[in-house]
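[Discussion] Sanity-checking designs against the backbone

I'm trying to build intuition for which residues belong where. Below is a structure token string of 185 positions. I'd appreciate it if someone posts a full sequence so I can compare it with mine line by line.
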């Protein structure tokens, strides 16, 4: 872990509550395991996972205000669902506050909440790590963990089911719908 990553970790710890920070560190651990397993850069996976939820210290109203103040455009789905909003803000915070300019890292932070049709290896790693960290329970998480032992793509559909909000009466984000259609076969 580089000095910069340690510095970011310490600052993020101050930004998040204890439960959310514990989740973030757990995602980092899984991301490193998946990076080793599938041939990605471990340091980059750790840093991306560390930054993926850095906007979670803001409540939804604060996130909406942040978007307005920083000209982050929200679509109709994001205005009603905290999950994709925090991903956009997380990438923005990573860039503005922590000076991260690696597009692969920024895209993976953006994609970890809703996914996208053409995910890179790092995108998939953060996406799956977020859905399969040790505290995540349920059949979908178990299915994703088992799939991720051999094939990262096979883990995407169960993680997508974890990340969708339609069961709570919220509309699914178009990217989520595309992901489920593509990988849930």
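Best answer:
Here's mine. Compare freely.
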């Amino acid at each position: 872990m580089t000095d910069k990553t340690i510095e970011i970790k310490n600052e993020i710890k101050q930004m998040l509550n204890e439960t959310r920070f514990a989740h973030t560190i757990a995602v980092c651990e899984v991301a490193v395991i998946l990076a080793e397993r599938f041939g990605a850069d471990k340091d980059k996976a750790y840093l991306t996972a560390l930054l993926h939820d850095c906007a979670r210290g803001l409540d939804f109203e604060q996130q909406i205000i942040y978007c307005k103040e920083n000209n982050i455009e929200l679509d109709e789905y994001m205005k009603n669902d905290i999950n994709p909003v925090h991903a956009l803000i997380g990438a923005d915070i990573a860039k503005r506050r922590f000076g991260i300019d690696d597009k692969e890292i920024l895209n993976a932070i953006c994609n970890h909440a809703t996914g996208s049709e053409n995910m890179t290896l790092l995108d998939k790693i953060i996406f799956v790590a977020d859905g399969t960290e040790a505290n995540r329970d349920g059949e979908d998480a178990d299915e994703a963990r088992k799939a991720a032992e051999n094939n990262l793509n096979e883990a995407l559909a169960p993680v997508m089911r974890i990340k969708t909000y339609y069961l709570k009466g919220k509309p699914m984000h178009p990217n989520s719908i595309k992901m489920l259609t593509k990988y849930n076969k």
